[in-house]
Design a protein that fits this description.
Elements (H helix, E strand, L loop, with lengths): L4 E8 L3 E2 L1 H10 L5 H12 L6 E2 L3 E3 L5 E3 L12 H23 L3 H6 L2 E6 L8 H9 L6 E6 L5 H15 L5 E8 L10 H7 L4 E9 L5 E10 L7 E6 L2 E6 L3 H16 L10 E4 L4 H10 L8 H10 L6 H10 L7 E8 L3 E9 L1
Parallel strand pairs: 6-7, 6-8, 13-14
Antiparallel strand pairs: 1-9, 1-10, 2-3, 4-5, 8-9, 10-15, 11-12, 14-15
Length: 356
Amino acid sequence: MTTAYLNRIATAVPPHDMHRAFIPFAESLLPEGTPRNLYRRMVRLAAIEHRYSFLKPIVTEAGEMQDESALFVRDHFPSTASRMEAFRKFAPQLARCALLKLALADPERRGISHVIVTCCTGLYAPGLDFEVIELLGLSPSVERTFIGFMGCYAAINALKAARHIVRSEPEAKVLLLSLELCSLHMQQSKDMEQLLAFTVFADGCAAYLVTAEPVGFALDSFVAVNLAGTDQLITWRIGEQGFDMHLSGQVPGQLRQGLAEAGKRITHGREPSSIDLWAVHPGGRTILDATEQGLALSPDVLADSRNILFNYGNMSSASVMFVLHRLIERARPGQLGCAMSFGPGVTAETMMFHAV
């Protein structure tokens, strides 16, 4: 059976760092006293310093925080339609940045047979799959697949689909794009749990290539772990004013327990501590802590995931590819790795791989 390889990855983020600007705005929505003090403490513990967005934060003459384009104005946050129009404007720009960084040579472009796109933060048609073909001048006969609304674990499912394609069509060359503009779905809320979620999410994009050429990471196996009774802990639904997220504080605890039970199933009998490379979705500090504890990993093992969280926040489906990008640049042949992302279900989508 043909082996599929993740050959290379390129990443991109928008130009504006919104993290420090968002914090005082979110704080201002909460009552003074205990709620604001609690929010400040949680922000300090979040282990995030930068998050990027196409929305450029400014302070108005009245002292209010908003974005330069006035899409998000206090008490006048945009409709879903307005947010989707912004997505249609900005998403192709970010896709272009990542695709150009991937630096496909002309022969490689001509050889692309499949395009797979993951996104849960914006929809339009013709969509990003067509944008990729047009931006790179690919053949109009390229087969297109869109993996939508799966949340943070979608990139693992995209790699799974690419592996199936290459194993059945050894000459296939699969170009993948994971793009999310999470900042377009901020809400004006007084709910602490919701505000803390908005303090984590950000925009980002990864472009990556999967072929049968033995370069990069060999995609060895995939295991999905669904945690029974947790389907309401992470939800993502389309509302009148953007997409509405619910992210329960129970998720880390459930994840810790689920991974403790499924660890050796994910690694096919190996001790998790024996795996050389870990690319864990940086969904938040508590998510990484729960993974570390559930799999009994040493504190330094998830350093790459913590680095991405610190510098970029949670970019939903693009995040795990940012971590894999760090790993693929320094991995040594023969090293074993495990990638995993978490999302609605609650589900952990996992992938074993090795460096060649």
